[in-house]
Write a structure and sequence with these properties.
Length: 230
């Protein structure tokens, strides 16, 4: 699975070591040598992991603090690289999920990213939105079911096209079948946004069996998309 990461550091030794480590794990890496440019990249691109040199890059700690405020990367797996100025506890309080201490070694870096790999893959699946064209029934309030068409589907929700007005009520029941299967999914949810005949649905409650089926289907679609010839 081709995961993508952003490394914000100007330390050439760190950059070379982590590039080699991430390559072994088939993780792509984009490097930004300045905190400001790293922040700009984060505002416009999505990464599965963000690695920040907090102590030896001016403004690095601020990049880590602001990471959770960026719409695209607020749930990305984050790594803080420390060199004696920031404590591990402070790094976690700033939003880091993992901490690397200088001087880095190939073995310590590999252990850290191996431990984080499952979280990064989970983040990729959570964020992935698969284009679909499937009918959906929405049950809201006392009115009869509303017919809609889903245009994309993720683990956390779906985008729908609906011709009627969307009531501002919780979705007591939502029904659809996973494309290409006979698996029926039933969930509870809410309308997250509405825009001229389109709306976003956020799933709130899904039975465990249905959630597992949905996650497996999303993973299969994600793997297929990554292996399509460009």
């Amino acid at each position: 699975m081709n995961l993508e990461s952003l490394l914000v550091s100007r330390d050439s030794d760190v950059v070379h070591l982590l590039q080699a480590t991430l390559e072994k794990l088939s993780i792509g890496v984009e490097v930004s040598a300045a905190a400001r440019s790293g922040g700009e990249v984060l505002s416009g691109s999505k990464f599965d992991a963000v690695i920040v040199d907090c102590d030896d890059l001016q403004g690095g700690a601020e990049v880590l603090r602001n990471l959770r405020k960026t719409p695209s990367n607020k749930t990305s797996v984050s790594f803080a690289i420390l060199n004696g100025k920031t404590t591990t506890q402070q790094a976690f309080e700033m939003g880091a999920n993992f901490v690397l201490q200088k001087p880095l070694t190939p073995s310590s870096a590999l252990r850290c990213f191996n431990a984080a790999l499952g979280f990064m893959e989970r983040e990729r699946r959570r964020y992935f939105r698969c284009p679909v064209d499937l009918p959906v029934l929405l049950h809201m309030g006392s009115a009869g079911p509303l017919k809609a068409k889903a245009t994309n589907l993720s683990e956390g929700g779906m985008a729908i096209h609906i011709e009627s007005a969307v009531p501002k009520q919780p979705i007591s029941k939502l029904n659809f079948a996973l494309p290409g299967t006979k698996v029926a999914i039933e969930a509870k949810g809410e309308i997250a946004w509405v825009d001229k005949g389109r709306a976003g649905v956020r799933f709130q409650e899904i039975p465990d069996s249905s959630r597992q089926q949905l996650e497996n289907w999303i993973l299969h679609q994600l793997e297929n998309s990554l292996h399509k010839p460009k």
